[in-house]
What does this fold into?
Amino acid sequence: MVNKKKYERGLQKDTYLIVGAILLLILVEGYVVYTILSHAGPAVPSWIMGLYVFFFLLVVGIEIIGYWQVRHSLKQHMHEFEYYE
Amino acid sequence: MAGGVIDSPEISAHKKSEPLVEEATESPGLVKTLRPYHVWALGVGIVLVGEYMGWNFTIAKGGVLGALLAMLVAGTMYVMISLCASELGSATKLAGGPYDWARLFIGPGAAGSVGLAVYMEFIALEAADAIVVAFIAQEIFPELQVLPVTLLVIATLTFINYRGVVAALTLNFFMTAIAFIAIILFFFSGTFGAFELHPENLFQGAVPNGLIGLFAALQFGPWFFLGIEGAAMCAEECKKPSRAVPLGQQAGMITLLVGAAMTLFVCTMLLDSSVPAEGLGVSVYPLFEAAQASGLTILIALLALGTLLTCLSSANGCVCDSSRSWFALSRDHFVSNWFSSVHPKYQTPYKAVIFTMPIAIAFAFSGYLDQVITFSIVSGLLCYVLIPFSLIRFRKMFPSHISKVRPFVSPLQPWIAWFAMAIAIVIMSTLFWGYRYNLLFALVFYLIAYFYFHNKHKKYMKHFDWQKEMDWPNPSHHEVSKE
It folds into this structure.
């Protein structure tokens, strides 16, 4: 007999962790990259700034998609693999 | 070669009885009790030391902007690698990590080389960590000598790992958590005005070596994240690997990204980096020195403690990962089968654990710490080419996403795997600035290892029964496994 509430609580806890980590990543990474580029950026040609923006979007974007995919995977398999027993 | 796999009686006996529903059983193999926070502790524990020291060589090469570019480029590569590792680790659930993935999806030459590379990467790092702990101890207690303290550190951590993986990684969790909290407190103290920041440092030290320095700095970018792929190596010892590995490893990856950004921010704001040969670029303990520059005693104490704990947790995690790689190599006859024993009481690969000690000591007393670390980085970079390649092969051999084979499906594949390989090769090529002989030596070493293992294991290569060994259906193009 599967305890549905237990599984919902378990998934909810994991979701809080995932959302919290993603928010922290966006806030800290965004703040640091923006602050450094706004002070040090004028020292390099503008086309190089594009490189920073490109890799910033890649690193944050892929990690967000990846971690959200982890949540999707947990939700999909939690009963099959009895994650919260 | 593609798809060639090695069969051995030991590994068959271990795997064939594994049920679809992962249970917390205590089989004659490794104990299966680890949880997501242990995976986090293993991955972050190994890597966080690179944010306390070492990353600042990016400043010496490329200034503040070089360090930022290195952090973002290496971060992108590691995010992709860690997603590949999460998918492969939760699918295979084997202790060898990159070695087992290469064994199953590439072939014995690549498997042997990558297994050896993982072993060398972590054992060299363990030796370096133990030396740094000894130096810190000597600074606190000048009457101590470096040699005996290094030996004591290596012996103690080996003993902890011999006694059990849960105790070792729970200890790692607390040490790593304290070290990470120290970074968080330091960062928020600065941003909320507890001490004065110096934004003018950012422009003055932006690009001291010109544009070429920006790209030369890439070679030290891996310091921020080196070893996070090792988090997936405890999959075989996890209670629920398909939950613990992706959840713990991606939490670890975000921890490192956040920690790297915070470290870069406070250190560049507090320490001068305008002259590459002075200040932040050559600091031995940059976070600790930045705390000293803040003038707050509580932060100085916290960051000093963090520096010590992060070295210990890194060395501890390295013993765990290097021993698992050696154990997996031994289980499949790549090295002597004698090392594949599991302790009847503690359920650890105790012979492989003990064997890390003489090798780490040999590295530690070679007298070439920087060479040892560079060898560790090159070994890691080799893994970063072969891990995504293993995933590409895995996706090709098993294209359907059935939960039995692929419980975690990493996104944007195979494009991010190809991109990660390209970045790894670019970073490896930047080692020509200053480390060309180390790079050539390492590449020749692993090339020889490749042919040695490939030839040695021809006799073990045979038709692989995926159903029996992995409880998986046959690959989509089954004929490749018969090569």
